Amino acid sequence: MQTLTLKSYKFVHNIISLLLRMCRTEFSSVLVLWKNELLKIHKVWVQFMAHIRNNNWKTKMWIAEEMSTFDSIYF
Q1: Residues 16, 22, 24, 26: is their CA dihedral positive or negative?
Q2: What are the Cα distances from residue 57, in Å, to 9, 10, 36, 67, 69?
Q3: Span 11-33, pLDDT tens digits
Q4: Domain residue spans in the chain?
Q5: Secondary structure class of 69 (helix, strand, coil)
């Protein structure tokens, strides 16, 4: 399960990095706003992956029983 999680992390990280590179090539104010939003999304994603790697998510109360099916589908 750890390997799949890292693969999904790398996939999302690569997409965000590509979008950030695209934003750097343009100087429009709209793209600057998109870059800021992408940086926020990337920060949240990194925090989420660190949380999962810590193994804390298994012990939290907000995890429902259907989380096991979520794991099997997405990770």
Answers
A1: negative
A2: 16, 20, 28, 10, 14
A3: 777 777 777 776 665 556 666 67
A4: 2-74
A5: helix
| Contact assessment for residue 16 and residue 38, using Cβ atoms and an 8 Å cutoff | yes
Answer yes or no: is pLDDT of 1 > 50.
no
User: Which pTM was predicted?
Assistant: 0.37
Phi-psi region of 55 (alpha: psi -120 to 50; beta: other; left: phi over 0): left
Spatial separation of the C-alpha atoms in residues 8 and 74, rounded to whole Å: 8
The answer on pLDDT for 35 being more than 50 is: yes
Check residue 56 and report its DSSP letter: G
Alpha-carbon torsion angle 35, 40, 42, 47, nearest 10: 170
